[in-house]
Amino acid sequence: MPVTRRTALRGGALAAALVATARPAFAAPSSRASADPLKTIVTGYRELQTGINRPSPERTAALRNLGRVAKSYYDSMTVSGNGPLWTDLPLGPGSDYTTSMYARLRAIAVDWGTPGGTLSGDPKVLDGIKKALELIYASQYNPQVGEIGNWYTYEIGVPYYLLHTLVTVADQLTAEELARYVSPVKRFVGNPNLRANNPKVVETGANRADKALISIVSGALTGDTAWIRTGIDAITDVAGGGAASVLAKLDRAAGDGFHADGSFIQHDTIPYPGHYGIVLLTALAGTIHVTEGTEYALPDDLKQQVYALVGDTFAPFVYAGALMEPVRGRMLSRQGETGHDIGHQLTVATLVLARSATGPVKSELAGLAAKWIKEGTYAPFLEIPDPERFAPGPDLVATPGIEFAQEMLAGRVRPAPIVAAHRIFGQQDRMVHVTEGWSASLGVGSQRISRYESINGMNLHGWHVGDGVLYLFLPNAKGHYSDAYWPTADPALLPGTTAKAGPPGPLAGTPLTTKAHVGGVRWDARHGAYAMDFVSEDGSLSAKKSWFFTPSGIVCLGAGITDASGQAVRTTIENRNLGENGRGTLLADARVVGDSSTLHRPRWLHLDHVGGYVLLDNAEVTALREDRTGAWRDVDTGANTKGTTTPNTRRYQKLVIEHGAKPVDAKYAYAVLPGASVVGTVASVLAWRVRANTADVQALRLWDNTLLANFYSAGTVDEVSVSGPASVALGRNSVAVSDPTQLQDSVRVTVRRRTVEVPLKDTFGATKIVPLR
């Protein structure tokens, strides 16, 4: 997607309060309950741009900052002659700058239409908006232009910005003018079910939802009720018999859309709850909002399905108001869309949905939004301190977001509590482990799910983000991955990965691995195991990797590490962003470690404000503290998303296990203890009971005698035997089993001389519980 989803306006929302002229085309009614459904839709969409005029100090501060940006765009805009509106955005067919032109104009229009805005109601500004609309229409976006470059620009990106602008000034335009400016949208989005530049492509997921909302609003602006109905029907794919319905739940691995286990996929093989899923949710929330109370309103059963998505698909991957990195795809490289930025968009979409929900559902949605706002102290939701950092985008964040949040918070909503959880999303090869103090997730790839996505000039350091990265989210480091992490972190030494030194090789677009064995088993809300049959992208390095999750930490095992390339092979325990000029003492067996040290067989390590690490075998560990400098442009050169060239320097603490060159069947074993004290770290040195760590099976015995095991083939560990690859959790009265390969019909499990056949066909990595009594 060529534009980011967080805006210089930090988003959109629509209020009325525009300066009236003699005969406005869409005068805002005194309330949303208009007898004219077209006016209701336009007014509703205006609310999603300019807000509901709910005064507060936070709104005033936000408007001041947003107005500064809008005024700078207006002051530098030239509408006389045939030249470009802005000197740095040249005109021309297929221009890479068309999206930015409309985005800047949107910023001006929304500020003009927002009560209290810097440009609010200024007739000269309105005149400039009108002239700019005509100039860009004539030169850049009209029914005669051809799609050059990224299809998204013509079919979603520009239409959204154009509609944001048009609904804001709709009262000031004639029906003929509205029809003229919407005419290219009709050409490119007249049928939201199909790709305009290739009608053989049926739209799915977020793209379909975006086009549906675009159709609904465009139809309302032009009085085209058939277009509105086409947009409504596109949501459930009436034309295609429901095959591409954005609300259908797929029950298989991969494939665009929502899945039965809560997964969300876009581009067929990329887990995307942290971007496209939220884009889709935002479009659905907007659709519900603008059509509420009209003949086009979604049926209640469909609305309930939308409401349920928030808790099932998105909430598990939110930490401190931010979306976790493993579900953000290539978007993690966007300077203007950190995990906190997309988290803000999720929050506003949830707030918009809560406004139409009732009863317990309304309370649940409001409670989640209140939780994310309360916990998001790194990037406070109610503040917009630096709007110039963000590229404009069709978000539902900003003044409207602030107003919706304060409207909700005024009702004394109780924030949802933190609840321990361990969830495995087998249909997108993702998992999440939540405790009351910290959370974790993994970035992996398989035959089903790409190891990374690097397209449109984005995610240019993404070589290893799907090679078994262990992401830790800590309460005293809520901005860890948002604080210039991706342009400055060493991309070859990401925590949890086993990789070779030396040049990483060229990036692919969305590469799959050659291995099917990726997945795990859930024992309960606080325990689980996950396995990965790893092979490097060039096929030369292989390893079996396991992670065992508990309330106090994660035990990481590796075995069968083999490589013939001759390059040094390393497993990274930690590569922590300490911030600019960051501090924090690193101890190894009670001794202070210098900036660069080789540690011979340490038993434990502890890093201030991060936690402890226990070495469970005789490993050589390199500890290196270094400053690294990089710019966001290094990781994102996209036409409309490219980062700045401003250098960022961050200090990192690396802990690396050295396997040497050409290792054969090398291994590692260590525990990561997030937030642990020095005393707690030392006390846990003898607490971890590794029962096996081979290329065939890796297993851990818990304190209560529960056994967690990952089998890569038929085998035995302690009192458990399996007939084939499986992840197993064995307790006193039951055994939990899953098939990480997602290829087997069943697995025979023998426990204490009792054998059971566990059916696993079409479970797609889900855990099956078998009682033993």
From TrEMBL:
Residues 62-360 form the Polysaccharide lyase 8 N-terminal alpha-helical domain. It holds the Pfam family Lyase_8_N. Residues 1-27 form the signal peptide. PROSITE patterns: TAT (PS51318), TONB_DEPENDENT_REC_1 (PS00430). Residues 690-747 form the Polysaccharide lyase family 8 C-terminal domain. Residues 422-677 form the Polysaccharide lyase family 8 central domain. Keywords: Lyase, Signal. Belongs to the polysaccharide lyase 8 family. This is Polysaccharide lyase 8 family protein. It comes from Amycolatopsis silviterrae.
